[in-house]
Design goal:
Strand order of the largest sheet: 4-3-2-1-5
Number of strands: 5
Strand content: over 45%
Oligomer: single chain
Radius of gyration: 14 Å
Order of helices and strands: HEEEEE
Helix content: 10-25%
Shape: globular
Distance between the termini: 44 Å
Largest sheet: 5 strands, antiparallel
């Protein structure tokens, strides 16, 4: 998982993440990783609109956000 997070940070990608909190609740977050330190990482959470610190071991899944280019055909 750590390797995926490092790649996403290097590519400046947005991620959809499934995360399990300490109390066992699972949440879906849209994040952008700021830095990775040891077993945790800091990211901007678009869901909470704030910087948050997450434990790598509590990340259940990450998927890159794909932006489709929309164009008007005349």
């Amino acid at each position: 998982m750590k390797e995926q997070l490092i790649k996403a940070m290097q590519r400046d990608q947005l991620l959809n993440m499934m995360y399990m909190a300490k109390d066992g609740t699972v949440s879906k977050r849209r994040i952008k990783i700021i830095k990775i330190v040891g077993n945790s990482f800091q990211a901007y959470c678009f869901t909470r609109q704030a910087k948050r610190t997450f434990m790598i071991d509590s990340v259940l899944a990450v998927v890159p956000v794909i932006h489709k280019v929309r164009s008007v055909v005349c």
